[in-house]
Design a protein that fits this description.
Order of helices and strands: HHHHHHEEHEHEHHEHHEHHHHHHH
Bound molecules: arginine
CATH topology of one domain: Fumarase C, Chain A, domain 2
Largest sheet: 2 strands, antiparallel
CATH class of one domain: Mainly Alpha
Strand content: under 5%
Shape: elongated
CATH superfamily of one domain: Fumarase/aspartase (Central domain)
Helix content: 55-70%
Distance between the termini: 45 Å
Number of strands: 6
Radius of gyration: 31 Å
């Protein structure tokens, strides 16, 4: 095929249904509609077609990345001799002007700009004249959208990673402030939401921080896997023209070009992985939110929200509600839905590009927006949350919390654990049925005795959690050192 740039304006990717007999003519449809692909059609597209198939209403946020990718493409075309130096300059400047118009809020979309790619190409052609019409040489919107959306996603996910690390930092700071010294506050550790064993407050807060760091780490993995460019794959098979995919990849700051043009144009694994990462982080925030809801209730009384991060009731004057925490919990449902919905869209798509793939953007756009706002709100909430450490300690030091320590004491004197479990279980049952204090029963029990009663002293039980990574003072102090180092490293990795 000759290097006729216009030939590519009608690439075979433009999969608009052939005109049904009753389709409105150009008069009844949109003037100039389908401007990119109208060549083989006798009439313009129906209004309902444009209304249903457009994506400009949500893909406009890809504009700057599409401009970046288009500039790389133009430089590649020039290297291949497909644009001369004047044309190259004219098109690059026009692309820059389009970005400037968008920044200034002066870029107007036309009714027939079906997506952001169409809009940019239309405007570049208006600004650069005939040279502008060469922009789409050797390119399809299929490799174009895969490239622009990938660039956008990489920036957006990097920002989310910074937000995740920011919240992990807040939790780490609160954990460090809560401390690991002899007087450091503890709270009940729960399993099944039943009090199990006391843990340091710092240990509990740090647990959430580790989860958030894992989310950021997933983004780092994802960055490696998305570090290649689909540009040059064309509609599905590449081109007869001398394109330079490796050069455009390098121009875009990506490590390598695609290996397979079919895969490059139809792969949305990276979007699905991103919606998973967002959903997983959303689930972490949801668990944190549920905890704030519980802790700030009168029933728990472990924490009080700062006024700036709480809401009131329109009817009940006394109310102070944890709406941020509740929405962090509630919106996780939507983030999971975004991920599940995208996977359902991808399932069963034949090679290669199908218009279904246009449905890839909103789930991630929404997820990125929602998670970004949740991370800032939760960071503010946690930074200002007041802990009632007396209420926490009172609950942590409830007598039952010592039961496991008592059994372990018996184990140290040589008793098999199963037997020790039964001995202590029997004491707990007696204390419940006889209404006797567990400490008194322990003192009277010859195999335990007065030494064991020391375990009932406030803070004594948590001090027993000496396993590395466990909930006691020394291991938590060590943990906070590695957590701080991990947060520092992640913050460095994701700095701007
Ligand atoms: N707006 C489309 C999308 O987001 C661009 C690609 C359209 N390609 C096509 N062959 N119709 O997927």
């Amino acid at each position: 095929m000759a290097a006729d740039p216009h030939a590519n304006l009608n690439d075979d990717s433009e999969t608009v249904d052939p005109a049904p007999a009753d389709r409105p003519t150009a008069e009844g449809g949109i003037a100039g509609g389908g401007a990119l692909w109208h060549g083989r059609f006798g009439s313009g597209p129906a209004e309902s077609l444009m209304a249903y198939t457009e994506s400009i209403s949500f893909d406009r946020r890809l504009l700057f990345d599409d401009v970046t990718a288009s500039q790389a493409h133009v430089r590649g075309l020039a290297r291949g001799g497909l644009l001369d130096a004047d044309e190259e300059r004219a098109v690059l400047e026009a692309l820059e002007a389009v970005a400037a118009e968008e920044r200034a809020g002066r870029l107007v979309a036309h009714a027939d700009d079906e997506d952001i790619h169409t809009l940019i190409e239309r405007r570049v052609t208006e600004l650069a004249g005939p040279a502008g019409a060469k922009l789409h040489t050797g390119r399809s919107r299929n490799d174009q959208v895969a490239t622009a959306f990938r660039l956008w996603s990489r920036r957006a996910m990097a920002e989310l990673a910074a937000g995740l690390v920011g919240l992990a930092r807040v939790l780490t700071d609160r954990a460090t402030a809560a401390g690991t010294g002899a007087d450091a506050p503890s709270i009940p550790g729960y399993t099944h939401l039943q009090r199990a064993q006391p843990v340091l407050l710092a240990h509990h807060l740090a647990a959430h921080a580790w989860a958030l760091l894992r989310d950021a780490d997933r983004i780092a993995d994802w960055m490696d896997r998305t570090d290649w460019s689909p540009l040059g794959a064309g509609a599905l098979a590449g081109s007869s023209l001398p394109l330079d995919p490796a050069g455009t990849a390098a121009d875009l700051g990506l490590a390598r070009p695609f290996e397979n043009s079919l895969d490059a144009t139809s792969d949305r694994d990276w979007v699905a992985e991103a919606t998973f990462i967002v959903a997983m982080a959303g689930v972490h925030l949801s668990r944190m939110g549920e905890e704030v809801v519980l802790w700030s209730s009168d029933e728990f009384g472990f924490a009080t929200l700062d006024d700036a991060y709480a809401t009131g009731s329109s009817m009940l004057p006394q109310k102070k509600n944890p709406d941020i925490a509740e929405l962090a919990r509630g919106k996780a449902g939507r983030l999971i839905g975004n991920h599940a919905g995208l996977l359902a869209t991808l399932k069963g798509l034949p090679m290669a590009y199908n218009r279904d793939l246009q449905e890839d953007k909103e789930p991630l756009f929404d997820g990125v927006d929602q998670l970004g706002r949740a991370l800032s709100a939760m960071a503010g909430l946690y930074a200002t949350l007041r802990f009632d450490t007396e209420a926490m300690a009172a609950a942590a030091d409830s007598p039952g919390a010592v039961a496991t320590d008592l059994a372990e004491l018996l184990v140290e004197s040589g008793m098999p654990f199963r037997e020790a479990h039964a001995v202590v279980g029997a004491l707990v049952r007696r204390s419940l049925t006889e209404g006797a204090s567990l400490a008194d029963l322990v003192r009277a029990e010859p195999r335990l005795g007065p030494d064991a009663v020391a375990l009932f002293e406030p803070g004594a039980s948590v001090a027993n959690r000496t396993t590395p990574g466990g909930a006691g003072h020394a291991p938590v102090a060590a943990q906070l050192r590695s957590l701080t180092a991990a947060v520092d490293a992640a913050a460095e990795r994701w700095a701007n």
